[in-house]
Design a protein that fits this description.
Layout (H helix, E strand, L loop, with lengths): L2 H25 L8 H10 L5 H9 L4 H21 L10 H7 L9 H11 L4 H34 L2 H49 L3 H5 L3 H15 L1 H27 L1 H48 L1 H7 L2 H53 L5 H34 L1 H7 L37 E8 L10 E8 L4 E6 L5 H8 L7 E6 L2 E2 L5 H6 L1 E4 L10 H5 L9 H10 L3 H5 L16 H14 L4 E5 L7 H12 L5 E5 L3 H4 L4 E6 L2 E6 L1 H7 L2 H8 L7
Parallel strand pairs: 3-8, 3-9, 6-7, 7-8
Antiparallel strand pairs: 1-2, 1-4, 4-5, 9-10
Length: 702
């Protein structure tokens, strides 16, 4: 290919990439994984020339002088590219990949710390580990005895001593059987331990996640967290099944080989030790690189999973807006980065194997040369030389497997640092013991026994100068000095524009978040002093977009209900929510398993309302609960809301017909309460609410 055609193809390649990037940026710029300047470096690191070179070619693409200049620059560019592939060159650098991955510079987890974590997780099943390590030790000692006995039996046969030869062969057979049995037992026990570790890891991480503050999930992606629970835990489990298994085995075998070598000839042993030292030095460099590469691979894998999950969950939106190509491009770009890191990781592994095999073969030649000279000088016998060569190979092999296993251990720990980070997260302060505690006894208090448990909740709610902003957006105030009071059994409507803080108030009442300033009282007690579980058991919530679990309808309705209920209770709640009729038409009725696409938005909302009714809460919160209902179902829900029962009801709605019969209407604007009163009182004042009603006939959304 000529220089001009090559530069043209490269320019076309870069232009296509830029066009694709620009089209993606126009569609959804905030979701692109990398900035534009980093995408140019991607092409450069994958083997193409940099952007400045392609621009230079286009400016000097005509004339003989330009061709000579361009040819010189092209040669320099290709030389730089070739030099970057040498060990220590720019191609191996992972710095740019860290910037593209956007990974946090978390504190690295040491091997000792990681092993301490792993050992603690399997505390109840350590018998399996003890059996595995015991079998490993017996198998290793049996195997390390074989080379000496094998060499001795060969020279015994040569000498014609038949009885001794038979005894040695019998002993070899016993050692082989012992090694085989113990190796099988070792492998089985380590496999069982691996399964136990994966289970414990996932249980521990999932438990840690469940007890985090809600603000934690405002900044974390579900795709990233599920990736940690899946592939990261599986990779970390190799620490026991493969890494520690082989590390201890090869330490025992290498030590046994070294002892035998020293007993045969310590001068010859020194030559072997030099080569082993060189291998260890190479490993230090290689192991550090592999650890960083493995961690980076997990970061890109997690981001790719995040994009895939996001796209598949929003497939209808993707199809409607015709962004299939853009989503494929996002996913492909992350896979290219993952592939680029994996290629460099594999290349580093190839260099390591090249070093090992070269030194390993050199050891054989060196052992034969020095051993042969020792025989000629009468320093060692042929039998001793045979044993020396066998144990020399054994030691080099054990060294190789040892450093290879150490590399795998570093990779597993490096790739799973986020797993240890998730396990070490402190639970939400709502679940911590309220007594005195130190770092040693901070534990999750699932029952929260020290909180104030109220056997009967009257439903009196009072907010005093409450201010709030979300932890993920601390510079954006959401509520400012909000104060109001709700009497027991009162129906209160909270109205206002989208974003004025209505749903944030609901989150504070459920204590999903705590106020930054001010206080919330329930029946006269500060909400922070109440038992969090007991409080939430007495509050029912129906949101605007209810989410149902992948389980049968009956289980969804009874979800979270602490009192004993039967099927009749479930069906009664469904009837009150207007859901019984459509549930009865389903093939399996209340035992129908819910999945995406089975129910409409209104049907899901009726089931969520039935769930709240079944709890028989002292406080019922409806956050746009009737927005997706038809007229008949809405009439049923209004009857439920305004039926004079022993229950405080808080309604957030945009429809005038839903709120005009409320005992009290709280009008919010800009995170503040601007008016409080009944529908008639607010109309008579002709204030903010009154002007709103005049503008909209049946909607108070502004």
């Amino acid at each position: 290919m000529s220089f001009i055609s090559r530069s043209s193809s490269l320019s076309l390649h870069n232009r296509r990439f830029s066009d694709h990037h620009r089209s993606a940026s126009r569609a959804r710029p905030h979701r692109l994984p990398f900035p534009a300047e980093r995408q140019k470096s991607i092409l450069h690191r994958l083997g193409s020339i940099d952007a400045s070179s392609s621009v230079h070619f286009s400016l000097h693409g005509h004339g003989s002088g330009a061709e000579r200049c361009g040819g010189f620059e092209s040669a320099r560019s290709w030389l730089r590219s070739a030099a970057s592939f040498l060990p220590g060159g720019g191609w191996w650098s992972l710095r740019g990949d860290w910037e593209e991955a956007g990974a946090a510079d978390a504190k690295a987890v040491s091997v000792v710390t990681a092993l301490r974590w792993v050992w603690g997780l399997i505390a109840e099943d350590r018998l399996v580990i003890y059996v595995a390590f015991g079998s490993l030790a017996v198998a290793a000692l049996s195997e390390i005895t074989m080379p000496s006995l094998l060499a001795a039996s060969l020279f015994t046969a040569q000498s014609g001593c038949r009885d001794l030869f038979y005894r040695q062969v019998q002993l070899l057979g016993i050692l082989c059987c012992t090694s085989g049995i113990c190796s099988g037992l070792r492998s089985g026990c380590f496999a069982v331990a691996n399964t136990i570790l994966v289970k414990c890891l996932r249980e521990t991480i999932f438990s840690s996640l469940v007890f985090q503050d809600i603000g934690f999930f405002d900044t974390k992606s579900v795709g990233d967290l599920t990736s940690r629970l899946g592939s990261d835990c599986q990779r970390l489990s190799h620490v026991i099944k493969n890494d520690m298994n082989l590390i201890i085995r090869n330490i025992l075998q290498g030590t046994g080989a070294l002892v035998n070598l020293l007993s045969l000839s310590w001068p010859l042993t020194m030559s072997t030790m030099v080569i082993c030292s060189v291998l260890s030095a190479i490993f230090l460099v290689y192991g550090r690189y592999q650890r960083n590469a493995a961690k980076l691979s997990q970061e890109f894998t997690a981001k790719a999973n995040e994009v895939a999950e996001d796209t598949l969950n929003l497939m209808k939106t993707v199809r409607v807006y015709g962004t299939e190509g853009m989503e494929i491009g996002r996913y492909k770009l992350l896979l290219e980065r993952l592939s680029s890191v994996s290629i460099r990781e594999a290349a580093a592994y190839g260099l390591w194997n090249l070093s090992f095999n070269t030194l390993y073969r050199s050891t054989q030649v060196l052992a034969l040369l020095l051993g042969g000279l020792s025989i000629l000088t009468g320093y060692v016998s042929p039998e001793q030389l045979t044993k020396y060569i066998l144990y020399c190979e054994w030691m080099i092999y054990a060294t190789w497997r040892l450093v290879d296993s150490l590399t795998s251990l570093l990779q597993s720990i490096g790739a799973s640092e986020e797993v240890f980070h998730l396990m070490s997260l402190s639970p939400s302060h709502q679940y911590l013991s309220k007594g005195k505690h130190t770092e040693e006894n901070v534990t999750v208090n699932e029952k929260a026994e020290e909180g104030l448990k109220m056997q009967k909740l009257r439903g009196h709610i009072q907010l005093v100068n409450v201010s709030f902003q979300y932890p993920s957006r601390i510079t954006v105030p959401v509520l400012a000095n909000v104060s109001f009071s709700i009497k027991p059994n009162e129906v209160v409507a909270i109205v206002g524009a989208s974003g004025c803080g209505k749903s944030s108030l609901v989150s504070l009442l459920l204590r999903l978040y705590d106020p930054v300033d001010g206080q919330i009282y329930i029946d006269g007690f500060p909400i922070k002093e109440l038992d969090i579980r007991c409080l939430r058991e007495k509050i029912g919530l129906v949101g605007q977009e209810p989410h149902l679990f992948h389980m049968d309808i009956s289980s969804n309705i009874s979800y979270g209900c602490s009192r004993e209920i039967n099927q009749e209770d479930v069906e009664l709640a469904a009837s009150q929510a207007g859901a019984h009729d459509f549930i009865s038409t389903l093939p399996d009725g209340y035992q129908t398993v819910i999945h995406d696409g089975l129910l409409s938005g209104g049907q899901k909302q009726r089931i969520a309302i039935a769930r709240a009714i079944l709890r028989d809460p002292a406080i019922l919160i409806l956050d746009e609960a009737t927005s997706a209902l038809d007229a008949e179902s809405e009439r049923l829900i209004k009857g439920l809301i305004f039926n004079k029962t022993a229950r405080t009801v808080i309604v957030i709605a945009h429809r005038l017909s839903t709120v005009e019969n409320a005992d009290k209407i709280i009008v919010m604007h800009g995170g503040r309460v601007v008016e409080v009163g009944t529908h008639k009182e607010l109309l008579f004042r002709d204030g903010f609410y009154g002007r709103l009603i005049k503008q909209r006939e049946d909607s108070i959304e502004f």
